[in-house]
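Journal club prep, shared notes

We agreed each person brings one worked example of a sequence with its structure written out as tokens. Mine is Helix-turn-helix domain-containing protein. I'm keeping it raw so we can talk through how to read the token line rather than staring at a rendered picture. Sequence first:
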Amino acid sequence: MQRVSEFAKAKGISRGRAYRLANSGALPAFRLSDGSIILEDAAVEWRPRNARPLSYRMAWLLLGILNGENLAGIRDAERARLKRHIQELRDAESPARVLATKVSARAGLQVFFAHPEDAREMRSDDRILLSGVGAPGSGMMAGDVVEGYVAPSAIKDLKSDYLLHEQVDGNVRLRIAEVLTPGRAAIAADLADWGRAREMREANRILDGLL
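Then the structure, token by token:
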């Protein structure tokens, strides 16, 4: 859950606009007895209308270049586009927020609830490539949160093994994609997806080191 003012700051919009979005139903929210509005966790997925996510392929190419990988087989036009995207990140007040929008098509996010003991066990499961909160270098303790990438062929068994059930504010955030290793850039993007101040700060710290 998140206050409207925190959401507005994380997304780089005015509080007035955030309140209008909540009141119009564009953001999932509920009103407390004192009249204040609290946004549900699903609101972090909101993106400005003018945001233009990259394709799956271009998203991972951008993440790879940020990680310093020597990517072969990139066409000249793609390389020129990637250079422009990197410059936009360098020019941005919050590179992490911009990156999260650009690479939002990198994987499909599924959110579940798991018992804290199961969550700790999941963090040692080699079917999950840890990323985001709790990943090495993230600057954040995991607690009972599990966040990472899972191959499409493994998600069904993981859900069965750990009795996972979908929950919008759950403690297990799995991104479904064929990934060898997420890398620091993906960790930054995953942190930024939370839309919260602390995660965004750590995401920007990581990107500062990559840019």
